[in-house]
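Quick entry, no commentary yet.
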Amino acid sequence: MTLRALLRDLTPPLLLRAARRVDRGRSLRFDGDYASWEDARKGSGGYDSAEISRRVFEAEIKVKRGDAADARDGVCFDKVQFSLPVMAALARATAMRTGSVRVLDFGGALGGLYRQFKAFMPAAGVAWTVVEQPHYVELGREHFQNQDLRFAASLDEALRGGPADVALLSSVLQYLPEPHELLKRIALSAAPHVVIDRTPCSGLARDVLTVQTVPPAIYPASYPCWIFSRRRLEAAFNATYNLVSAFADGTGEWQSSACAFELAGFILDRRR
């Protein structure tokens, strides 16, 4: 037994969780309580979008070539990092359709969640459209697009082929200047299912705008990031959707300088 394993066995779980929070806080930070997106943007160091997309692209290419099993945020893994609640929600939506399920993946980078879904349900028919920034769309179309996977630079472009069955928002709402505007558009759409994942939510009655600082090992960056009021986020869909399930990822509680929060997820069905 290694010393690390021995210490892990001897350390109470409560202290292990506390240690993980301390270590995580040193690498990924959420600072401030800003009054506006512009204030938060000025309070951040910004980021080199070309460098970020390069790292994401290189990681996804390694997966495509078989040199890695999975990639997320430019980091490669030797095992697929499934978000099981998201996979279950997509499998559920597929089972409720008579043909291929049509997914709109907002902020889906180069199609990592599409790749995971095809690994999770290889026989499922799917028409998957990633809605992303233009440079990701260009890379996606050149290197990853296929008969099932497409890339679009806007919601309007993505909807030209018809309404979606699933609107998927994984770790994207918090990085939009006006996330509630997108929520309104989705709530007014004809999408029967909405799936939200890895979205910061607190118990506060208001949203909090912070600056997120990313560890240099991933990429040197800091940029505005929302921590949503769980109550407000759920209320954005109350008029047209029923909440099927709420969940959180396995990282536990996070701490910003303004509040504690978790990375939450929601599965919603449109009311008949």
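second:
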Amino acid sequence: MSKKRVVVLMGGRSPEHEISLISGQEVVRNLPSKYIPTPIIISKDGSSWNVVSKQKLLSINTKMIMKLKGTSKDLSISGQKRIKGLSYIQKNADIVFIAMHGPFGEDGTVQGMLELSGISYTGSGVLASALGMDKLRFRKALEAEGIPLPRYVAVRKSENIKKLYPKLGKPPYFVKPNDQGSSVGCSIVKSYKELNKALDFAFEYSNIALIDEYVSGTEVTCGILGNDKLIALPLVEIIQKKADFFDYESKYSESGAEEIVPARISKTITKKIQGLAIKTYKALNCRGFSRVDFIIKDGKHPLVLEINTIPGLTPMSLFPKAAKAAGVNYGKLLDEIIMYAIK
């Protein structure tokens, strides 16, 4: 049987550009031998698509990639070749593994482009991807299904924020932009005077901000695998070490947080969370894989925070750790994700 050609798409126009590169590296590194990987890096402004060799990509140190965070600089790899993205993929790929996070990668845009071109790809389709990235629409979909959420108010730029007081009461609040991942643009507000600064920060990334009630409790996440027959992976418990919440640094530095698998919670709560994660996955009509994040209020009431339709696949990421705890190593995990896409 001939080997399948897999284009691994990474980078792109997102604040999570560097994390996408590291996810892409790990996918290329761990693809089983029955696949032939072709890494393609999309530049930060989206104008340039470049094919790089597997060997050159894997030789790049993670720290070197992360040094580019917050700059306009792209990763420079010797021997990379600029291509016409779609036409190249149509000729050289049997399937695309999307290792992109955040806007212009996880939000349905890349999915729609591949869909129009008749190219198979991993993960959820256009609508599920778009809903997963748009936190407000995601929550509206969950409210229709009766899935528990934190109390929240959506605020648009230049909108009066007085309406939030009757609904949320006094601070603290948790403020986040509507369409970002990896805790980009998020902050905790401990007093009214901090609110405008937090909103300005969120509005740097989105025209809509969500102001949540601040819930103090155990944070856990639940990975889901499958299309029709769904598998809920073991829960991962997240304990922050450096920050007040699971922020960007906590997610992607080795000393930023401690992750415990399986989570140290009762079997009853575990099953309840896994059930809610599957219900959330089905509500959006996700496919392949996703990760649903929760916080447990008062030790017994799990609330859905958000969904990641392309969860991180870096060495520090939660989804591979949960899969490993379920007996699924990284290579097998990638194989299953690809097979779900093919099916």
